[in-house]
Amino acid sequence: MELMARPAGRAALPFLPFFAEGKVIKGFGRGSRSLGIPTANFNQNVVQSIPPAMGSGVYYGLANIDGGPVSKMVMSVGWNPHFNNQVKTMETHILRQFDADFYGSWMRVAVLGFIRTMESYPSLDELISAIHRDIAVAEKELEEPEVQELYRHPFFSAALPGMSPIQPHTDTSLRPLSNHIQNGPAISPSSSHLAHDVQKGHQ
Ligand code: ADP
Ligand code: MG
């Protein structure tokens, strides 16, 4: 409980902080990248695991990729129109510049606070302005003293799936297994392509 992020002036939500991790998959090409706001998507197994009470809206928190540096993020939780709005999506925009896309990488997120509900904006410009305000809120809230410890939370530095320190080549029963791992290939800390190559080589 000492790690509970509860920025001053914001109602604490019982389901926060919420941690999620999984492989970054291709999203639905809603053009967020062309707005300068790329959002990394999780697969449905991860999205299904979010608490029902965590409704659609914009949240802020922390994220890292393949065990790398922990960065601030803003996340939208919404309903996917491609599936009759029956299926939730979680889209994470990490407040850090990346040199390249990281599809297939392992993303970890800690959702710490709620910013606003989803609204439809009269124009794209107003939507973009709203997102920039969200980013400003996230930047500020994530500087709060009670959040600082979470940047070093062991969740972000835990061994990546398929990358346990002693990786048996012959006895597959010793490999760490979880739902997420069963749903995606092993990811290396530096490059998912490398992990795929190594995997092929051993199987
Ligand atoms: P998609 O519809 O496939 O999700 P986006 O236009 O939303 O496409 O772009 C998301 C992708 O952009 C991510 O999966 C990731 O590989 C890449 N990306 C690069 N920089 C970032 C960032 N700062 N935050 C989130 N994703 C990023
Ligand atoms: Mg996206």
TrEMBL record:
Domain of life: Eukaryota
Record-level Gene Ontology MF annotations: ATP binding; riboflavin kinase activity
Residue ranges annotated for the Riboflavin kinase domain, each copy included: 15-143
Polar residues: bias regions: 167-182
Compositional bias per record (Basic and acidic residues), positions renumbered to this chain: 194-203
EC main group: transferase
One Pfam family, short name: Flavokinase
Keywords: ATP-binding, Flavoprotein, FMN, Kinase, Nucleotide-binding, Transferase
Ranges where the record places region Disordered: 167-203
EC code(s) of this entry: 2.7.1.26
Coiled-coil segments on the chain, per record: none
One GO location term (cellular component): mitochondrion
Pathways involved: Cofactor biosynthesis; FMN biosynthesis; FMN from riboflavin (ATP route): step 1/1
InterPro entries: Riboflavin_kinase, Riboflavin_kinase_bac/euk, Riboflavin_kinase_dom_sf
Keyword Transferase found: yes
GO BP, sorted A to Z: FMN biosynthetic process; riboflavin biosynthetic process
Protein name: riboflavin kinase
Organism of origin: Hypsibius exemplaris (Freshwater tardigrade)
